[in-house]
Design brief:
heterodimer; A: Fumarate Reductase Cytochrome B subunit; 11 helices; about 0% strand; B: Glutathione S-transferase Yfyf (Class Pi), Chain A, domain 2; Rossmann fold; 3-stranded parallel β-sheet; 7 strands; about 5% strand; globular; binds protoporphyrin IX containing FE; binds iron/sulfur cluster
């Protein structure tokens, strides 16, 4: 197989397969959650559920001062690389063009050097959280192979994207093929691992906010 | 609890969990990224530094069950495992064993006061304490709950009080209060506005409370009553995690309230009793109440707002306050106690993290009824101690008999000379005397 064959494979059938597994997988995961439902609550409510639920969905991006102080590294570096990841994903002009050609929607991107810098920061951030995971007593204790797996499948698309952009892998079709291939691994792994938090964290936050909100506390 | 030990089994425990796992639990387990932030929110981790006290880790057995039975991926893995085992002709290894549950018992009981602080902090939004409450149902059903809590539950069911306290003990106290105040303590008054419940811990440790409300209610002209058939507000069934026991105990309160046809039920200065009756009770008996439930602090603040409490003079020393988790974070009562403090304190200072972000005293969630948990209870108190040291109050005020006992014992242990008082008593101490009030009314 030539690098060009590999690129065509990743761009074609493999990509469709990965997208299908990702979409179907996430739908099943969400269905599994919502199908369980919630028992009727007979206690007279003090407050509303919906508004506090929605508020908690965004409030947890911005932790309380005590938590910020006690876990500064997690909050700062975690936010930094997540934001970087999303910028690299959604603000890189070739990505926007791909989305435009498949979904028909588009938006203005950021200049390449900016995305390049953000990507570098994201990579450094991800390396830092890995080191933190390996050294922090609580994180080390909690971590299972899956935690390292999701780190790797998140790290690889960013890394290969960075290497391809800087022409550090040759020939270019191989570089691009590898990048797309790692994205496909990411998409396929996502629904079966805690990478589902990308979607379910909002569900969890909503429930948290609703449960507390009913009792009159904004969580 | 009254059945023999043979009726408890791992399978029954797992069945209880299967029943408890709902959409929020599935969303929470799906979302945890093992970031460890919840550990920093938990007094039992913060003060011991032992990672096994990380809140989410306390739920690992329940998470295993969820993964295997409530996710497609888990079911697939199980099918493959079973096939392989069948091929090799070996018996499948059980997912959750008795030994595992035994190991988790101290994690779910001794090192968790159900304070709910972890639930406020988890960045993906997991309400961890909601799950710990559920996990305890399975622990009871599998026969893995602490002796101290089992004993308290048995006493509560058999005698009406988790401490085995009887009406005649309370009756003696009532007589004392009546002699001291010259006021009547109403008993079994039909159609009273409020049915007042007490906690055994309060009756034994803080008889001042009954005297205080007798004075305040007389002052404010509130119609209230005690019930001879049910005076206990706490619910050992909820602490240990047994819906059946919880329902039995709640039903007694409901029966008493319905029999006396009261409009409202007042939970005493006890955070646990309040959440038990206010939030869990209706779900334990599966119907809404025909009456409202208030914590005494809510009632006092309403009386204050209505101008029915007239006070004179203020406490001059530096006072700070401990918010009971159950009252503040878990029930939304945060402002009321502060408005009441304003009424009677001139030098009040809040602890730095208070209200919904306060730190637990370390004794809640059944920890104080579980002798085995004593060392952990004292360890967790160190967080509260550090908070108190930060603001250097001369006295602490609180509104929960369990918190108050824990603060008193803890402060004594560390040789800190800071008395602890109940908020209701302080209010009672500052009531304008009736005669004086009448005279003033005549003059004007
Ligand atoms: C853009 C897609 C996302 C990807 C690829 C992703 C991936 C990851 C990975 C791999 C980790 C583990 C890092 C580690 O080993 O410490 C992680 C942690 C985390 N994620 Fe995401 N995530 C995404 C979106 C989100 C969203 C939308 C939320 C919130 C609603 C979120 C909240 C978190 C939190 C709170 C952590 C823990 C951070 C920490 O350890 O300090 N993530 N994520
Ligand atoms: S804080 Fe939340 S996401 Fe982090 S380890 Fe605890 S439960 Fe999991
Ligand atoms: S509820 Fe409180 S004591 Fe229990 S795990 Fe959470 S923070 Fe710790």
């Amino acid at each position: 197989m030539t690098p060009m064959d590999f690129l065509l494979l990743t761009k074609g059938p493999l990509f469709s397969l990965a997208i299908a597994i990702f979409a179907l997988g996430i739908l099943i995961r969400l269905f599994e959650i919502f199908a369980l439902g919630r028992a009727h609550n007979y206690a007279a409510a003090r407050g509303n559920e919906v508004i506090p639920g929605l508020k908690t969905m965004y409030r947890r991006f911005n932790p309380d001062p005590g938590t910020f102080k006690r876990s500064t590294f997690d909050v700062v570096v975690g936010t930094l690389w997540h934001v970087g990841f999303v910028i690299a994903l959604l603000m890189f002009i070739p990505h926007i063009e791909l989305i435009k050609s498949t979904l028909g929607v588009s938006w203005p991107g950021l200049p390449n050097p900016v995305v390049d810098a953000v990507t570098a920061i994201t990579l450094l951030g991800l390396v830092a959280v890995l080191i933190h995971r390996l050294t922090h007593p609580v994180k080390r204790f909690l971590s299972t192979p899956q935690d390292y797996l999701i780190w790797a499948v998140t790290f690889l698309p960013v890394l290969t994207g960075y290497l391809a952009y800087h022409r550090l892998i040759n020939p270019y079709p191989l570089a691009l093929g590898l990048h797309i291939f790692t994205v496909e691994i990411f998409l396929i792994v996502l629904p079966f691992t805690k990478l589902t938090h990308i979607f379910t964290a909002f569900v969890a936050r909503y429930y948290n906010g609703a449960i507390f909100g009913r009792k009159g506390i904004q969580s | 609890m009254t059945q023999g030990a043979h009726s408890f089994s791992v399978e029954r425990g797992l069945n209880a969990w299967r029943e408890e796992i709902d959409a929020p639990v599935a969303a929470f387990f799906s979302s945890c990224v093992h970031c460890g932030l919840c550990a920093q929110a938990c007094p039992f981790f913060v003060e011991t530094g032992d990672p096994k006290y990380t809140p989410i880790h306390k739920l690992e057995p329940m998470r295993l069950l969820w993964e295997q039975e409530f996710t497609l991926w888990g079911k697939l893995k199980k099918t493959v495992k079973d096939r392989v085992d069948a091929q090799l002709g070996r018996a499948p290894k059980p997912l959750i064993t008795d030994e595992m549950l035994e190991e988790w018992e101290p994690l779910l009981y001794d090192s968790c006061s159900m304070c709910g602080r972890c639930s406020m902090v988890c960045p993906v939004g997991n309400d961890i304490h909601y799950m710990i409450r559920k996990a305890r149902e399975g622990m009871v059903a599998s026969g893995h709950s602490p002796e101290g809590l089992v004993a308290a539950s048995v006493r509560a069911v058999n005698t009406g009080s988790p401490m085995g306290l009887q009406w005649k003990t309370l009756d003696v106290q009532i007589k004392h209060v009546e002699t001291a105040t010259g006021l009547e303590v109403p008993i079994d008054k039909q159609g009273a506005e409020y049915l007042v419940l007490l906690s055994s811990m309060e009756i034994i440790n803080f008889p001042e409370y009954l005297e205080a409300i007798t004075k305040i209610f007389d002052h404010a002209g509130v119609s209230w009553t005690l019930s001879k058939t049910c005076f206990e507000a706490t619910n050992a069934g909820i602490q240990i995690g047994s819906k059946d026991i919880a329902a039995t105990l709640v039903q007694r309160v409901v029966d008493a309230a319905e029999q006396l046809q009261v409009k409202n039920v007042i939970s005493p200065e006890c955070g646990h009793a309040y959440t038990a009756i206010r939030w869990e009770g209706p779900n334990a008996i599966k119907r809404a109440y025909p009456f409202k439930v208030y914590h005494i602090i809510e009632v006092l603040d309403q009386l204050r707002a209505d101008g029915r409490i007239k006070t004179e003079g203020k406490e001059m020393d530096r006072l700070s306050m401990h918010d009971p988790c159950n009252l503040a974070r878990k029930s939304g009562v945060v402002q009321q106690q502060r408005s009441l403090m304003d009424l009677v304190a001139s030098n009040f200072v809040d602890l730095k993290e208070h209200g919904e972000f306060q730190w637990c005293c370390g004794a809640g969630g059944g920890v104080s009824s579980n002798e085995r948990a004593e060392p952990l209870k004292l360890a967790a108190f160190k967080r509260k101690k550090a908070q108190i040291e930060e603001v250097e109050p001369e006295r602490m005020v609180t509104m929960c008999a369990t918190c108050r006992t824990q603060l008193e014992e803890g402060l004594e242990e560390f040789n800190m000379d800071i008395p602890v008082v109940g908020l209701t008593e302080i209010i009672a101490d500052h009531l304008v005397e009736k005669e004086v009030e009448n005279k003033k009314a005549e003059e004007s």
